[in-house]
Design a protein that fits this description.
Blueprint lengths: L3 E2 L4 E2 L22 E2 L4 E2 L4 E2 L4 E2 L4 E2 L4 E2 L7 E5 L2 E6 L1
Parallel strand pairs: 1-4, 2-5, 3-6, 4-7, 5-8, 7-9
Antiparallel strand pairs: 9-10
Length: 86
């Protein structure tokens, strides 16, 4: 509830294919993406599979989330890192 999601945000719960040529038609396992309450994702943020974004966190525009962000944190970068408590 109460999440703000900017324009062109991409949330992918699957890697879509494997890298090895002989396995490219196989789909890897999906992993849920969890947005806790009152999360704000800036424009063009990319969230990869299995990531949890803690309640009250803010993610800067253009960031790529590859791992969890704790509650009440500001995060930014490629890959995104928690940079400041809120």
């Amino acid at each position: 509830p109460r999440c703000n999601i900017g324009t062109y945000v991409i949330m992918m719960d699957n890697d879509f294919h494997r890298l090895e040529p002989e396995h490219r038609n196989e789909y890897p396992e999906s992993a849920p993406i969890i947005l806790e309450e009152n999360v704000w994702l800036g424009a063009r943020v990319i969230v990869l599979r299995g990531v949890t974004i803690g309640a009250g966190s803010v993610v800067g525009a253009g960031s790529v989330l590859t791992r969890d962000i704790p509650p009440r944190q500001g995060a930014a970068g490629v890959p995104a890192q928690a940079i400041t408590p809120l």
